Amino acid sequence: MALAVQAYQKRAPFVIDFLADLARRVGRRIPVRLVKGAYWDAEIKRAQVEGKAGYPVFTRKQNTDVSYLATARRMFDHSDAIYPMFATHNAQTIAAIRAIAQGRDYEHQKLHGMGDDLYAEVVPADRLGVPCRVYAPVGSHEDLLPYLVRRLLENGANSSFVNRITDEDVPVAGLVQDPVAAVAGFDSGGSSIGHPRIPLPRDLYTQQGFDRDNSMGANFADDNELQALTARLNEHAGPWRAAPLVPGALPGGESLPVGSPADRRQVIGHWQPADTATVQRALANAVAAQPARTAPRPPAARRSSSTPPACSNSACRSSWPCACAKPERPCPTRSPRCARRSTSCATTPPRRAASSARRSSCRARPANPTSCACRAAACSSASARGTSRWRSIGSQSARRWPPATA
To answer: Where in the chain is the domain with CATH 3.20.20.220?
Structure first.
């Protein structure tokens, strides 16, 4: 039995350092198997869905190959605590590992039925004389099918050594090209180190022609990101004040206190209800704006009115969660529980509502200006009350036209 480390993850060398430290503390030499990686597609998709700042894996195969060699060198540096095992079917990788090892003990690993001809030049004593462990999948149909699909994707890829070695049009120099030189060529040639056709999660929609960024999430497994998030949350300790956003109106009356959801005795802000004059002013604004909004205009002009809400809510990424889950006291520097509570109120709904309104303005009539004002007021009030009503208010009112009632 051994631990498997995937070289396509950017953290791979640091995982080796952690395992070496663990092995020395427990007084055991840990066998570690280094592989390229088997879940690349899922890792990329998950980072996009969760809105990560970057990808946890490399987006070019050549970068993964370089990481494999760098991690292998790190494993040999800790050979007193780690027994190195290298799973590969790549001839260039096998030769590079032999050069890095410099006579130190290690073994190779391969899958049953793959690379037999290659390892016939590795295992015999009159060749390289390196032992090789053969792995065979064992399990039920539902376990084996995903495994076989991954193998088909891996071996069928254009960049796979197993696939390229059977192609007579690929020269030998291309099969054994040094990945370090290939990556250096990306940098010196003005190309991106990352794959140019795989945008960062934030730019997922803008590269496809949409006029909005992807909603950004937080990686709670990253201590640095978690500490930065809690620091931003502590900057928005309140108090908050919410009032109707109606141009030309000055709401009167008494502001009502809002208690913390965790302790109602603690006042975290105040909200100003809309009085009769404010409501009448909002209706008058809507009537006055109606002719101009329904008049023929370029699509860009019709979309512009929906852009500011999405941009402003992106900027308030850290203040929104604090308003939605106000802690009893400021968040400590490291508090995953507090961070999880605070980030449970996502800012995606208002962004999505604004984007939906922009798209609808190109096809049909724009969203009701009265409902836009009401949504903004509800947003501000919801922040003070410690709850988010964007999902029920923003998504429904943006679709409802004409209004159900006069």
So the answer is: 3-208
